[in-house]
TrEMBL record:
Pfam family, one: NUDIX
Highest taxon of the lineage: Bacteria
Annotated source species: Mycolicibacterium aromaticivorans JS19b1 = JCM 16368
Protein name: Amidohydrolase
Nudix hydrolase domain location: 517-653
Cross-referenced CDD domains: NUDIX_CoAse_Nudt7 (cd03426)
Sequence ranges assigned to domain CN hydrolase in this UniProt record: 227-461
Protein keywords: Hydrolase, Magnesium, Manganese, Metal-binding
MF annotations from Gene Ontology: coenzyme A diphosphatase activity; metal ion binding
InterPro entries: C-N_Hydrolase (IPR003010), C-N_Hydrolase_sf (IPR036526), CoAse (IPR045121), NUDIX_hydrolase-like_dom_sf (IPR015797), NUDIX_hydrolase_dom (IPR000086)
Residues that span the membrane, as ranges: none
Record region (Disordered): 467-489
Cofactor: Mg(2+); Mn(2+)
């Protein structure tokens, strides 16, 4: 750089010298590492070099000889790190070892060693990295600043293999396991990492966690909206606040009764005073640990702005969680709010690595916002919504699930929307869940009618269900579920079938086969009496599953460690998939185990009979589209049993029954059962 001011002008150095050469960068890095005592700052310096020279890292990362050389060069530093006491600061021997390792050797670029050193410091000083971020809370990073990454192992809280492991570049060199450098996305939103709930949120997600969404409203008539939808709508609020509050209280009670520890209300279903009153739920010993109390319209700030704000309450924390909507609706409702010019995305950090974020409806249709949440490591996203359809959200939420193994719950309201132009009624999904174990990472939850109700998702099993509210104003009480009918005396054909099974295959009923290369499993072949012969219960598999998508199969699955026999496996799986009460069936016996050619299970069919199967639980719509009872001797005939079917039962019309095909194993088992029944056909008297 030169500045000409006249004859004899001399070059002028820039005010801040830039480090152009690799040698200058390395010299600067070694000096910083030698003097820096904070592990977080040291990791940041090392990652900056990795980002600047990522092309060199890409070239060397896949070379096994270079990886071996780096392991050898970093070994002395690792010895010092493992022998040092657990101090919050890097002591002088550790700093000297780090700086001394940053040299070129045996064809290994210093940046490759810097990357290995960053990983080492991240591994051995993790607690100090967390403490360093904690001290800076509320922490707002700029481009190039370090940000914390959550690291809960989702596999420890779910009973399935993640269908979409976290997407990472083959070699991403601007992050370690617990730290990432902020990119340009940090300029799009005011991202704030908040550690005020660090202890209160610990353990917020476990194997027992159930997330519930509440849906209090039937249609748009429940809200005060302008007659002309083109007019601005502010504030949007319930036309009958007292009744609205009663329904919401009932639904939260239902959610708690269902075991939910995280509850989400929809957008604009409460007023500000009502939202604050709902804090009493997290103060109760039998209440949820975390409640997102929907959102409300209000005017606040300086200058005064019309806002749409969601608030949340956490047990053990006196303050409130807040999020201001930054993407107002324009259609079908013109939401007249004035969001901030630089919107804020606040990430609440828990001690065990969960990064909680709140979003309101169309905030999750903003691709920049979703990308920012993903880069910031948001892995528990709760979203109140008020939308005529949730399908456009599925891709965005699937991105959060796939990139960070996030759990997402969106509560939508109301149940019916009327198109202002043609007056057609739309029935949107009531909820949308994201879960790493779902086949497409997301699942929409519809309801059979427009009644208020709750949707639930069990984190451990991805079991998703819907329950409509009753006509009263109080939640159901434990023990109020009707008792299933006692099994009647077995009909003659069922007794004959049981005798045959006991004579031929009694030994197989005592235990599951020892697993070799195949995982033991069992299916339940549940028979009932029909007008022209036995009916069999079949499930229609969800279309996005890996095994038997869209096929008719028996309920069943793999053996769990707690299962004691094929019978216990089959009954447990049937209860989880269809809501069947095992007490309402009579086990007849088992058939020989057979290999499922598609899923690679060793499957034991368990035969059972029931006068009237009882389904008190929900159907797991993550796996099962619906449950059917069909004639055993003529699958596809237009017959239907009038028994107590689960809520997700299909009507046997020709369009539905003509499409699904039987699974291979299902067809084989049906053939065997029919062959056995030929010897003792129903209705034939014993001689």
């Amino acid at each position: 750089m030169t500045t000409e001011t006249g004859p004899g002008a001399v070059p002028c150095s820039p005010c801040v010298a830039r480090l152009h050469s690799p040698e200058e960068r390395l010299h600067y890095l070694r000096a910083r590492v030698l003097e820096e005592t904070d592990p977080l700052v040291t990791v940041t310096h090392l990652l900056h070099l990795c980002r600047d020279e990522h092309r060199v890292l890409w070239a060397q990362a896949a070379d096994p000889d270079i990886r071996a050389a780096v392991t050898s060069l970093v070994a002395p530093v690792r010895v010092i790190a493992e022998s040092a006491a657990a101090h919050a600061e890097l002591d002088e021997p550790m700093r000297a070892a780090l700086a001394g390792a940053l040299v070129a050797a045996d064809g290994v670029a210093p940046v490759t060693i810097a990357h290995a050193l960053a990983l080492l410091v991240d591994e051995h000083y993790r607690e100090h990295l967390v403490a360093s971020f904690h001290r800076r809370s509320p922490y707002q990073p700029a481009v190039g600043d370090p940000i914390p990454l959550g690291a809960p192992d989702i596999r420890s809280v779910m009973d399935m293999r993640p269908t979409a492991p976290p997407w990472r570049l083959a070699n991403r060199f601007d992050e370690t396991r617990h730290v990432r450098l902020a990119g340009e996305w940090a300029t799009q939103f005011r991202v704030v990492f908040d550690y005020s709930l660090f202890g209160a949120l610990q353990g917020i997600v476990t194997k027992d966690t159930i997330i519930a969404t509440c849906h209090p409203n039937r249609g748009l008539d429940d809200f005060g909206l302008p007659a002309d939808p083109a007019l601005a709508a502010f504030p949007i609020q319930a036309t009958d606040p007292r009744r609205q509050h009663q329904v919401i209280e009932q639904l939260i009670g239902m959610a708690v009764h269902a075991g939910a520890s995280i509850v989400v209300l929809p957008e604009l279903c409460v007023s500000e005073p009502q939202a604050r009153t709902l804090q009493q739920w997290v103060r109760r010993d039998d209440g949820p640990r975390l409640l997102i109390a929907g959102s409300y319209h209000h005017v606040s700030g300086s200058p005064r702005r019309r806002r749409n704000t969601a608030i949340g309450w956490v047990r053990g924390y006196p303050g409130q969680l807040t999020h201001d909507k930054h993407s107002p609706a324009e259609y079908p409702i013109n939401e007249d709010i004035q969001p901030e010019g630089w919107p804020e995305l606040r990430i609440y950090i828990s001690a065990d690595g969960w990064h909680l974020a709140i979003a309101i409806c169309r905030d999750l249709l903003n691709p920049q916002a979703v990308h920012t949440l993903s880069e910031a490591g948001a892995n528990l996203v709760l979203a109140p919504a008020m939308s005529e359809r949730l399908t456009p959200f599925t891709g965005q939420i699937a991105h959060l699930v796939g990139s960070g193994q996030a759990l997402v719950a969106m509560a939508n309201n109301p149940a019916d929307w009327i198109d202002a132009h043609n007056h057609d009624v739309h029935h949107p999904a009531r909820a949308l869940f994201g879960h790493p174990g779902l086949g497409q990472q997301t699942r929409l939850v519809a309801s059979p009618n427009s009644e208020p109700g709750i949707a639930t998702m069990h984190v451990h099993s991805a079991l998703i269900g819907w329950a409509s509210a009753d006509d009263g104003t109080s939640p159901p009480h434990r023990g109020s579920t009707p008792q299933p009918p006692s099994p009647n005396v077995l009909p003659q054909w069922a007794q004959s079938l049981a005798t045959t099974l006991q004579r031929r295959y009694q030994a197989l009923a005592q235990h599951l086969p020892d697993p070799l290369r195949l995982r033991p499993a069992a299916v339940l072949v549940l028979l009932t009496d029909g007008p022209t012969g036995p009916l069999v219960a079949l499930t229609e598999r969800a279309s996005d599953l890996t095994d038997y998508p869209g096929r008719l199969t028996f309920p069943g699955g793999g053996q769990d460690p707690a299962d004691t026999s094929a019978v216990s496996t089959a009954l447990r799986e049937a209860a989880e998939e269809t809501g069947l009460d095992p007490a309402s069936v009579h086990v007849l016996g088992v058939l020989p185990s057979m290999t499922d050619p598609e899923s690679k299970f060793l499957v034991t069919p368990v035969l059972a009979w029931s006068a009237k199967p009882h389904y008190p639980g929900p159907v797991n719509v993550a796996e099962v589209s619906c449950v059917r009872q069909l004639p055993l001797s003529g699958i596809g005939a237009r017959q239907n049993d009038d028994g107590d079917l689960p809520a997700a039962s299909c009507l046997p019309d020709s369009a539905q029954l003509g499409q699904p095909r039987l699974g291979v194993l299902t067809a084989a088992v049906i053939d065997i059962v029919l062959a056995l029944l030929d010897r003792h056909p129903p209705g034939r008297a014993e001689k």
